[in-house]
Amino acid sequence: MAENFHKPTLFSANKFEAFQGGDDPAYISRVAHETAQALLNRVRSDPDPETVERLVAYTDENGIDAVAELWSRAAPRSLPGALWRIYLIRMLIRQDPEGCAFLYQRGTDAAATIDPLVAGAAVPTGPAEIMVLADEILRGLFTGDFAVALDRGAAYCRVTAIGATSIADDLELTEPHRSSELTTRALRFSTTAAEFAACARLWRRDSLE
């Protein structure tokens, strides 16, 4: 990675917005794919509840650095790329549950799609509910339908993008700098949503590697 993170890592919204995704596949480490596949196969073949919960909460105690070192360089539409982004989204939510819940609830109110239902957060969605959603999505990668978990992650990102865009519109005249930040964040969430959706389609075709 370009930065050396120190435990525990605080991965700010600005860093998320600056994150450019994985490198070209030619630069992806074979280790990223091997570790992602080995971890997922082992846990899904024997989903011991304690092991699953340790994996879900791994970054709470260890920071995001170890996960980033393994998978952050992987292409977005790959197994390690999907795992990295789900862990990253969860980290962002746990570091700012109030802000994430606010954007998500605003997006829920403004959405004209079924995305809030697909994401599956409790309504109304406050900080506690948004953290539960993050855990459910990550846990679903290990114990449930992997593609459905990715679809839920994509829906969360789309709803949050709608919320960020809506608030950006409100602030365009009074706080243009903040409006621009939110617009950038919305674009990043929209991009991540598309990556999750693509990974879900690949998984259903047994082509996510």
From TrEMBL:
It comes from the Bacteria. The keyword Transcription applies. One of its GO terms (cellular component) is DNA-directed RNA polymerase complex. Keywords: DNA-directed RNA polymerase, Transcription. The keyword Transcription applies. This is DNA-directed RNA polymerase subunit beta.
